[in-house]
């Protein structure tokens, strides 16, 4: 059952991890926080796949950016990376049972100008593959006021939401007084992976196909935070 009252907001991520997707299973909208500052060491342009011998392999989209630049303004540097990433994905999953079932190759055959465009294209393949039907909204199109918790509260106001769903890391910085004043309650989404390899959700799709969604459902959990 879809819960339209829930706000899930997350920075755009390249080849996002399963927990990124598991928190979307019962919502109808994902707000992509593309108006916030790009973090060079973040997952906005890099992530891990299952490499040779099961060892995690990092794939990074090279970008052109300056300090303090918004994610939505970050440009992709060159085109050679796409062929290299596709070769890595083919080496990692080319023999996987469901490798040919998802149109991921098309992402790497196009030329991209902005990082957000690459991330959206990859996310679209993953959402469709996992059977997750959400509408993606870019925060830059809303221009919320404030930062941190106040920004999230303003997004909730714009979209008419009264429940904020976050990951465990967000609990360190949330200002619960601000949320309470806005009439917003909090849920924490967790994901306990079936193995110890913390890699992209692409791994689940390629190896498990239609059963990948069931794995997300089985290993993801949402808990309401009580005052």
UniProtKB/TrEMBL annotation:
Q: Which InterPro entries match?
A: WbqC
- Per the record, the domain of life is Bacteria
Name of one Pfam family that matches? WbqC
Stated name of the protein: WbqC-like protein
Q: Which organism is it from?
A: Spongiactinospora gelatinilytica
